[in-house]
Amino acid sequence: MIPVLDIIDGLYISIKYWNRGRRLAIVSAVFTFSEILLVLWIYLAYRF
After folding, report:
1. Planar angle of CA 17, 19, 22, nearest 5 degrees
2. First CA to last CA across the chain, in angstroms?
3. pLDDT digits 0-9 by tens, 1-48
4. In Å, how far from its chain's centre is CA 38?
5. Where are the chain's structural domains?
6. What is the model's pLDDT at position 31?
7. pLDDT given for residue 1 in this prediction
8. Rounded distance, CA 47 to CA 40, Å?
9. How far apart are CA 10 and CA 15, in angstroms?
10. CA 33 to chain CA centroid, nearest Å
């Protein structure tokens, strides 16, 4: 009985935090992409 409840509880928590995790992943990807563009822009500005 306990392992079944544990699995159900785990699935509930996974679904509950799925949207938050996805949102954080998108924010991280956008931040990383913007940092790469900034560094590339600075590099090209000093090169030419």
Report:
1. 105
2. 69
3. 567 777 777 777 777 788 788 888 899 999 999 999 999 999 999 988
4. 20
5. 23-47
6. 96
7. 54
8. 10
9. 9
10. 13
